[in-house]
């Protein structure tokens, strides 16, 4: 993608001159760029996301509509300025959103917290934001956001496991256990799907925004709380299950004070379920390398992270069965 | 191979060179990649020292010998059909613990609650 062509396309999308000032991240699926919008009222710093992945899970315009909806209902998210499924001159899906000011790099977030109380406050804020999200009637979300019940989740993971094309007995055991131990069905909510330390913006007063809604879905709200607490996102601080910064009790307090209902059995089940999901995801990244679809050493190295997730998965099952 | 140094020693030396000399001289994305490669060298050194352990564990669980790929496929099928041997979870947990300690030493020493 030519930077000049991208700037021209983004200018047409924004309806004003756009200058690309830097790259926030260049992921496998999307490039996130810092941009300046030259509006008649002055220059505004913003963020442009251009999808570069071959597989787009859903139209970016649907993601933009979801962001706008949840933002209006009080969930802290960037403001959508413009979105298109075909950026002029580039042809790729793109979205321009406001730039949320604060820290996004997990270790920076952890380092800047003055004490454990501040970490618990952040966990409460995350809980409250999730409760507001989960209270939005799910039929208001764009149709493109699929329903993923616990049953459907296990079906999807079984399909993903087959695509790996090689036996993984530990993950297989996990999926079999998940199918046999599903939590009682609940009405589905709009779920972020990837809320973790790494997709939040935090400043000195706490949570500023929740980012990256690419995998949002209608699902069991406990999925969001479980994923936020996965060991992978604690960065070694296992005594602070919520993103490495807060206690689970603090997350739950914030969630329930804002109207959410915490269901511990479902939370435990989704913890195992998302361990399985991430184990398969990491194995799939390694397969992309082995199959010659990427030469990124980081994706090859993902293959040696699978054992951690397999351990977390089976250890979680052992704890629940105990 | 009888040439010196052996593979484990060489991988450890490669990791040390990368971590102590190469990583500090780099920045940004390539520095991150060099760290990843150094870590992979350490993982491979530990892995080489333990090759064959999966096969032995699965063979003991299934009650017969075989190639690792065949044993893993058989165990996978048995689990999928709900007919895994009684001790399956314990053996799988021991195996993933062993492998996680190769890829991330110290990872499996949880508080045990």
Describe the SSE topology.
The complex is a heterodimer of chains A (322) and B (113).
Chain A: H1 3-14, E1 18-26, E2 30-39, E3 42-51, H2 60-72, E4 80-84, E5 94-98, H3 106-112, H4 116-134, E6 147-148, H5 150-164, H6 169-180, E7 189-191, E8 200-203, E9 206-210, E10 217-219, H7 222-228, H8 248-257, H9 264-290, H10 297-302, H11 306-321
Parallel strand pairs in A: 6-10
Antiparallel strand pairs in A: 1-2, 2-3, 3-5, 4-5, 7-10, 8-9
Chain B: H1 7-25, H2 28-49, H3 53-62, H4 68-80, H5 88-103
Distance between the termini of chain B: 45 Å
Secondary-structure class of chain B = mainly alpha
Level-2 CATH architecture of the largest domain in chain A: Alpha-Beta Complex
Order of helices and strands of chain B: HHHHH
**How many domains make up the 3D coordinates of chain A?**
2
Poorly predicted sequence stretches spanning 5 or more consecutive residues of chain B? none
């Amino acid at each position: 993608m030519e930077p000049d062509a991208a700037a021209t396309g983004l200018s047409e999308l924004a309806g004003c001159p756009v200058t690309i000032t830097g790259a926030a991240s260049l992921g496998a699926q999307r490039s996130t760029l810092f941009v300046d919008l030259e509006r008649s009222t002055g220059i505004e710093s913003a963020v442009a996301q251009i999808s570069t992945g071959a597989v787009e899970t859903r139209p970016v315009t649907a993601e933009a509509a979801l962001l706008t909806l949840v933002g209006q209902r009080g969930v802290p998210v960037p403001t959508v300025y413009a979105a298109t499924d075909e950026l002029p001159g580039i042809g790729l899906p793109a979205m321009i959103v406001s730039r949320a000011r604060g820290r996004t790099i997990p270790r920076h977030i952890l380092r800047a917290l003055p004490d454990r109380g501040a970490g618990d406050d952040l966990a409460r804020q995350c809980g409250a934001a999730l409760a507001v999200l989960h209270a939005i009637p799910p039929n208001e979300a764009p149709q493109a956001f699929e329903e993923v019940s616990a049953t459907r989740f296990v079906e999807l993971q079984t399909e993903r496991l087959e695509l790996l094309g090689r036996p993984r007995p530990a993950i297989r055991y996990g999926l079999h256990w998940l199918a046999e131990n599903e939590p009682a069905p609940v009405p589905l909510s709009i779920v972020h799907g990837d809320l973790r330390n790494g997709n939040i913006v935090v400043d000195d007063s706490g949570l500023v925004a929740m980012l990256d809604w690419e995998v949002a879905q209608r699902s069991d709200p406990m999925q969001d709380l479980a994923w936020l607490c996965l060991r992978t996102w604690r960065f070694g601080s296992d005594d602070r299950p919520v993103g490495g910064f807060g206690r689970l009790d603090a997350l739950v307090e914030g969630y329930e004070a804002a109207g959410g209902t915490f269901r511990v059995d479902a939370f435990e089940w989704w913890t195992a379920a998302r361990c399985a999901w991430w184990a398969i995801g990491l194995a799939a990244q390694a397969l992309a390398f082995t199959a010659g679809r990427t030469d990124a050493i980081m994706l090859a190295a993902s293959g040696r992270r699978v054992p951690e997730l397999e351990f977390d998965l089976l250890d979680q099952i052992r704890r629940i069965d105990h | 191979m009888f040439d010196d140094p052996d593979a484990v020693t060489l991988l450890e030396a490669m990791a040390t060179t990368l971590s102590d000399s190469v990583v500090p001289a780099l920045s940004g994305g390539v520095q991150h990649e060099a760290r990843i490669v150094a870590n992979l060298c350490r993982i491979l050194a530990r892995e080489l020292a333990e090759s064959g352990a999966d096969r032995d564990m699965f063979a003991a669980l299934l009650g017969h010998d075989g190639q690792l790929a065949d044993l893993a496929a058989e165990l996978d099928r048995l689990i999928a059909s709900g007919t895994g041997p009684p001790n399956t979870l314990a053996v799988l947990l021991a195996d993933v613990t062993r492998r996680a300690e190769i890829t991330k030493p110290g990872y499996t020493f949880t508080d045990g609650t």
